[in-house]
Structure formats: C-alpha cells, structure tokens
Design brief:
single chain, mainly beta, four-stranded antiparallel β-sheet, Rubrerythrin, domain 2
C-alpha cells in the first residue's frame, strides 16, 4: 500500500451551521498555530458559511 504524503498535516473543515465535514485541506503546523476558519460554500446548506478546522479521526 502506498503511503499518503502529508497525512499528518491533513485537517477537515466543518460547516458552522449544519456541522457536516465538507472539505479537507492541509496546513503547516509549524507556521500556523491557530485553528483555521474559512468562508466556504456548503452544499447541504446551499450557501456560503464559515468552516472551522476539526481533527480527522481514524489515523
């Protein structure tokens, strides 16, 4: 099985309204110490909402 590159930097982004995890991205934990909060489109809410960083389980 191939090893996933940057798997320890991978984070999930959860919608602030419906609490569903819609997006996955990565961040540099050495340079960015705070939690990421972005405005993204939520397909379930069908509008642009704030998405906050959550930890990915199952590693």
């Amino acid at each position: 099985m191939a090893k996933v590159k940057y798997s320890d930097n991978l984070i999930g982004l959860r919608c602030g309204t419906c609490k569903r995890r819609n997006y996955y991205t990565r961040r540099n934990k050495k340079l960015v110490t705070r939690k990421i909060e972005l405005k993204k489109f939520c397909p379930w809410c069908r509008k642009q909402t704030t998405h906050k960083e959550v930890k990915i389980s199952g590693k």
